[in-house]
């Protein structure tokens, strides 16, 4: 077993280096990276501190005579040799004993019997073994029973690879569901009857896709056919939960495979019908030899490594308005698709209950993704304003992914890097020549008009038409005389 796990570990490492080699950060030209470093890992590394705290908690439980195991994602990730996001412990200690043993720890819902033990800058979840019963709402169990048998605890979990236990002292892995062999085979398999498991909690449909995408695993045949049958039940899940899973699929490094699985399982039209509609929308072959809008979008996702939510969603939605803007003129054209796409992206993300901040970031990236066309003809001020666009770093990454998805390089990125290198930070963000209090001293009254004056001044400054305080005062008196 040890050797096969080691071989698998190699394979996963190989796959992740490969995908990293193919990914945006690896293919972003070096000069762009130097100016705008690409890359962000959404999976936080399990800290030393967390590991230490987990061992201390385990020792205390063992010392008090209880059974204790590492469980779930952290065991899976350890066996795969990949970073893990958090450590979960499970034990036969009843909730009341957990509260006594770890006074001051936060209870994650007392009746759930889960406590969050906090140490210095680390926290570990400890849960009493439990079984779960009767899921009438398709998401939450109506009843939870505390158990002393760890087997009962793992049987309520979703997939075999998420149901492994590990003894914190001997490192022995306890496997009641065949999780180890599924890890070796690279399979996502529901525990027990997949139909029943997806009926209990429909969110598991998306979790299956997420884990398959993240680890480049296959979904086991019976599990997959249950998913196909039950795809429409995902509509009963709260939009923010759906959004949480989709965001993770987009940002954890396997976005293309994730979306191909959403498509193949029939989930896509139920979660993102607008994206499903990209299929079969033709594009001009001269500009897009790769094929239709869906194919292009998948190739764009393919070039993303782990990335920020804004970049992941913008990559998925950048051409979302192509179906509604298509025109068969001299050639196929999508006039205004970026601007319309920004509205469409905002609408979709609002429906999925994304934060305003994320929706606006994505809308701004989608809305600006065609601006690169104008860069070669931009004058100085226009170019500086371009460099001031919000989320510039992600916008450059989006453009890079967009080019890779159309099987071409980008001379524009090279041009941007060359021109950017000649500018200082204060060329791009010059200190204002006048501020609000200066305007008040000059006799203007505070109010909304003052904001307008300040941005008009900034515009003139950026254009290079105003260079000093005196010039600014003169200009202001000429253009805003009435308010004085
Ligand atoms: P990640 O690395 O994404 O956090 P994870 O496996 O740790 O993966 P969590 O969502 O943190 O996933 O859940 C921890 C464990 O709880 C899982 O490994 C699984 O055993 C169990 N679990 C979580 N959500 C469900 C669910 N919806 N149905 C059944 N079991 C679940
Ligand atoms: Mg976890």
Query: What spatial form do the alpha-carbon principal axes imply?
Result: globular
Sheet with most strands: strand arrangement: 3-4-5-2-1-8-9
| Whole-angstrom Rg | 27 Å
Q: Can you tell me the residue ranges where pLDDT is under 50 for at least 5 consecutive residues?
A: 1-22, 29-45
Major sheet size, sense and barrel closure: 7 strands, mixed
Helix content: 40-55%
Class computed from helices, strands and strand pairing? alpha+beta
CATH topology of the largest domain: Hypothetical protein af1432
Mean pLDDT: 88
- Structural domains: how many: 3
Discrete helix count: 27
Strand residue percentage: 5-15%
| Highest-level CATH class of the largest domain | Mainly Alpha
In whole angstroms, the N-to-C terminal distance is: 83 Å
Under the CATH scheme, which architecture of the largest domain would be assigned? Answer: Orthogonal Bundle
């Amino acid at each position: 077993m040890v050797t096969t796990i080691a071989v698998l570990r190699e394979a996963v490492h190989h796959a992740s280096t490969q995908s990293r080699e193919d990914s945006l950060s690896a293919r972003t030209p070096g000069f762009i990276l130097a100016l705008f470093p690409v890359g962000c890992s959404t999976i936080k590394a399990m800290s030393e501190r967390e590991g230490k705290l987990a061992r201390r908690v385990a020792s205390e439980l063992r010392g008090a005579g209880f059974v204790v195991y590492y469980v779930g994602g952290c065991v899976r990730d350890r066996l795969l040799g990949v970073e893990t996001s958090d450590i979960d412990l499970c034990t036969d200690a009843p909730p009341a004993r957990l509260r006594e043993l770890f006074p001051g720890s936060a209870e994650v819902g007392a009746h759930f019997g889960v406590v969050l033990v906090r140490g210095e800058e680390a926290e570990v979840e400890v849960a009493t073994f439990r079984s779960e019963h009767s899921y009438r709402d398709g998401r939450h169990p109506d009843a939870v029973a505390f158990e002393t048998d760890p087997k009962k605890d793992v049987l309520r979990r979703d997939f075999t690879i998420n149901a492994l236990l590990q003894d914190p002292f001997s490192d022995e892995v306890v496997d009641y569901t065949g999780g180890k062999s599924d890890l070796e085979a690279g399979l996502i398999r529901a525990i027990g009857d997949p139909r029943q498991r997806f009926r209990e909690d429909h969110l598991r449909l998306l979790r299956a896709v997420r884990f398959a995408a993240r680890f480049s695993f296959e979904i086991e045949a019976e599990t997959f056919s249950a998913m196909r049958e039950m795809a429409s039940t995902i509509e009963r899940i709260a939009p923010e939960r759906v959004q949480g899973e989709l965001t993770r699929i987009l940002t954890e490094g396997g976005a293309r495979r994730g979306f191909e699985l959403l498509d193949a399982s029939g989930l896509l039209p139920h979660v993102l019908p607008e994206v499903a509609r990209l299929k079969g929308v033709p594009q001009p072959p001269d500009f897009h030899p790769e094929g239709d809008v869906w194919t292009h979008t998948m190739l764009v996702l393919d070039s993303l490594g782990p990335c920020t939510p804004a970049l992941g969603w913008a990559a998925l939605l950048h051409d979302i308005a192509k179906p509604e803007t298509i025109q068969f003129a001299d050639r196929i054209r999508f006039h205004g698709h970026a601007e319309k796409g920004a509205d469409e992206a905002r609408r979709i993300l609002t429906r999925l209950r994304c934060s305003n901040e994320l929706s606006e970031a994505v809308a701004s990236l989608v809305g600006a993704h065609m601006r690169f066309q104008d860069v070669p003809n931009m004058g100085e001020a226009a170019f500086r304003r371009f460099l001031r666009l919000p989320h510039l770093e992600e916008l450059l990454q989006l453009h890079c992914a967009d080019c890779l998805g159309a099987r071409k390089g980008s001379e524009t990125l090279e041009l941007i890097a060359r021109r950017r290198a000649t500018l200082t930070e204060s060329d791009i963000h010059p200190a204002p020549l006048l501020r609000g209090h200066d305007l008040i001293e000059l006799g203007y009254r505070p109010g909304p008009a003052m904001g307008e004056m300040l941005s008009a001044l900034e515009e003139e400054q950026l254009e290079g038409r105003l260079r000093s305080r005196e010039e600014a005062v003169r200009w202001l008196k000429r253009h805003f005389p009435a308010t004085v």
